[in-house]
Specification:
mainly alpha
Length: about 325
């Protein structure tokens, strides 16, 4: 149960990221699992005193974004895709040799988070008005691209992210991992912070307005491109955070994030890709069932988890009205 709740918290984080991106842009963010793996492997590489390939990937794509978008908003573009990558690269080159766990985690978050807006800028923003199916096909293609990039940068070996804490606690006969408590605490803090963000800030309200009615949001002056970039930034930060948290519990390879992302997608589907409380309940259910399945019937663990989709999808199909909603 402890393992199930811990992994359920990770699935909840991924489900939240998927819901944010889908509600704002209609994109099913399949590459979120790859960004999770990037978070784990980037932190592990930094902890070993080396410079991760994801940093050079960020620098190269940021330079391309700077070149393409310079004429639209020179100052903002220079700060976002010029100054930030340069400062981050200098900081990484200076601090990576210290091999401090907290430093490695913070640098990994700073490296992986901007990849979300870059993915939006180059992959989805030019076709933002396409059908959900077309956006899903692009997302799947992007997943395979990022998986190949991960194999080139990190190799096929598994790696473990630095743990926030190595401590353990005894509760009766139960040995509670301090890292598991950090995962749960991070999940609770992030959910509370997002609740405040969406309810008290102008940017959060803009995301809520876009999620409620994209056309209406445009009519009142909300920039669809900016809200899309912000949604992808939040999702990539959540994925990177989930990567450094789960990567300290279990080692991950370059392609392991896809399976974890799929289980977060199952939780998001249980929420109808709209309800955060139902997605949270679904994430905990998926985590606990997976853990119990690993104990009693390990060969059918994934079968048990993904079978949950059948009754949920049937119920959603019967409830939906139009053909597009059913799709």
């Amino acid at each position: 149960m402890q393992d199930g709740i811990t992994t359920g918290a990770i699935y909840l984080l991924l489900a939240i990221g998927l819901l944010i991106v889908f509600s704002v842009t209609r994109v099913i963010f399949v590459p979120q699992g790859d960004l999770l793996a990037f978070g784990t492997l980037t932190a592990a590489t930094l902890q070993s005193g080396q410079i991760p390939g994801t940093l050079w990937l960020l620098d190269g794509v940021s330079a391309l974004a700077l070149l393409i978008s310079w004429h639209r908003a020179p100052l903002r573009t220079a700060l976002t895709w010029g100054v930030y990558p340069f400062v981050l690269t200098m900081a990484t080159l200076l601090l990576a040799r210290f091999e401090h766990p907290a430093m490695s985690i913070l640098l990994a978050l700073a490296i992986v988070t901007p990849m979300g807006p870059l993915i939006w800028r180059f992959a989805f923003r030019p076709v933002a008005d396409a059908s959900v199916l077309a956006l899903l096909i692009i997302a799947m293609a992007l997943h395979f691209v990022l998986a190949g990039v991960g194999l080139v940068f990190f190799g096929p070996e598994e790696a473990r992210a630095p743990a926030i804490t190595e401590s353990n606690f005894e509760l009766g006969q139960l040995n509670v991992s301090g890292q598991s408590l950090c995962v749960l605490a991070s999940c609770i803090i992030l959910v509370a912070a997002l609740r405040w963000f969406f309810g008290a800030t102008i940017y959060g309200k803009a995301l809520r307005a876009t999620a409620s009615d994209r056309l209406g949001a445009r009519l009142v002056g909300i920039d669809a491109a900016a809200t899309g970039a912000l949604a992808f930034a939040l999702a990539s930060f959540i994925a990177a955070l989930a990567g450094v948290l789960i990567g300290a519990v279990t080692p991950l390879s370059y392609d392991a994030g896809f399976d974890i992302g799929l289980k977060g997608f199952v939780a998001a589907i249980m929420g109808g890709l709209a309800s955060f409380p139902l997605a949270a309940a679904g994430a905990v259910l998926v985590g606990v069932l997976e853990s119990l399945g690993s104990f009693w019937a390990s060969a059918y663990r994934d079968v048990i988890v993904f079978t949950l989709l059948i009754p949920v999808l049937a119920w959603l199909s019967l409830r939906a009205g139009s053909g597009e909603e059913r799709a």
